[in-house]
Amino acid sequence: GRPQGERLQLLLRRSQEAKNCAYCPYSRFPVGAALLTAGGEIFSGCNVENACYSLGVCAERTAIQKAISEGHTSFRAMAIASDMGDHFITPCGACRQVMREFGTDWDVYLTKADGSYIVKKLEELLPLSFGPEDLKK
Question: How confident is the model at residue 1 (pLDDT cuts 50, 70, 90)?
């Protein structure tokens, strides 16, 4: 199920902390993400830009890659943080597709700079998606 209480607060806090590590000298748009595995571990990530813009990587994909590299492939939730004032941060299309690789029934906490959030299922963020099971059809 959904993280609650202290676990949810930790997930949200870790996304904020990750945002503070972002390397974004070009866009000046820091983003942090914290990913909760099915086993209860949290992996965080930040965006990392590059002078060759296409080589940068988003916070969401950084967190997923860290979790995968440590042997985790089942996820329960992700929190995403930015400094977007009055707007909730949302993952880009590429990140949504990478997240989709690991199922559609997990929660994504979209936050505002003030710490408020809304929760969406990944399925809501990427409807009618293509996933690993579609390769077997």
Answer: confident
Catalytic residue among 6, 60, 70, 133: 60
pTM above 0.85, yes or no: yes
Residue 92 lies in a domain: yes
Asked if residue 23 belongs to a known ligand binding site, the reply is: no
Residue positions counted in the chain: 137
Could you list the residue range(s) of the whole structural domain that residue 51 is in?
4-124
Residues 95/60, Cβ–Cβ less than 8 Å: yes
Q: Is 60 a catalytic residue?
A: yes
Q: In the sheet where 107-111 sits, what is the strand order?
A: 42-46, 31-37, 75-82, 107-111, 117-121
